[in-house]
Amino acid sequence: MAVVPYKDQNDDKKSQVATMFNNIAGKYDFLNHFLSAGIDIIWRKKAVSLLAPEKPKYVLDIATGTADFAIETLRLNPDKIVGVDISEGMLAVGREKLAKKGLTNKIELKYGDSENLPFEDNTFDAITVAFGVRNFENLKKGLSEMNRVLKPGGTAVVLEFSKPRSFPMKQLYQFYFKNILPVVGKIVSKDNAAYTYLPESVQAFPDGKDFISIFEEVGFKNTKWHSLTFGISSIYTGKK
Ligand SMILES: C[S@@+](CC[C@H](N)C(=O)[O-])C[C@H]1O[C@@H](n2cnc3c(N)ncnc32)[C@H](O)[C@@H]1O
User: What pathway does this protein act in (predicted)?
Assistant: First the structure.
């Protein structure tokens, strides 16, 4: 059974995830930085720095949301970044942010489903996804699509929550994720389910070596796993 945000509804995971992000879009950036004490910003910087040696010119940011990862990737001076997402609410917040920063010529945001990407084979020099793959309805399909639209020799970078495994971080993290984060998330976002879905989806998600196995199964090579902040998050990289 897939972990979904709204367990009392019959919609598929993809529709529920899109609805959830539409509901919380206005509060998403604030909650992200507040609930992670700003560490999410450091994680995105680290993920982008892993891509620096590749000097990618054309980049796809999947599950781009409000475009924070795409904006961070501008540090690599690409010609163009395209961000895709299934939540129009998140994209609207992202577009407003890009307009304010004068970045609309460099970053284009459009509706796009990771499991059926609207691009030709071998299009992008690099592909990034931050906190997106856990939300895919069909993880293998989403990762295969990433591989399909990546140019041969191109690199994919995936940043995602993982599960810390050693004492005392494991216990502290579980307490925070199960007891504090859902309460604060619910009060601020006004969505009853989003911040309960977050720890549940992290718990069910294949992290570490399990993720690497699936990543390789769909065709990525030279895969690497970097554990961040006691294993709370991980970066996975792979080449086509
Ligand atoms: C936690 S947000 C991450 C946003 C952004 N990447 C960041 O680092 O803040 C997850 C995003 O994934 C998007 N998403 C989930 N499933 C998707 C899919 N199948 N295709 C494209 N986007 C998807 C959601 O709509 C949401 O905006």
Answer: Quinol/quinone metabolism; menaquinone biosynthesis; menaquinol from 1,4-dihydroxy-2-naphthoate: step 2/2
- Residue of 210, 236, 209, 208 whose CA lies nearest to 223: 236
Residue 225's DSSP bridge partners are: 236
Tell me: is residue 85 an annotated ligand-binding position: yes
Give the HSE-up count for residue 7: Cα atoms under 13 Å, Cβ half-sphere: 9
pTM, entire model: 0.96
Index of the ligand 1 atom closest to the CA of residue 20: 25
Residue 87 Cα to ligand 1 midpoint, Å, equals 8
Rounded distance from Cα 57 to ligand 1 centre (Å): 22
Residue 189 marked ligand-binding? no
Q: What is the mean pLDDT of residues 24-32?
A: 92
The label of the residue with tokens 């069909």 reads 138
CA-CA distance, 127 to 202, in Å (whole number)?
22
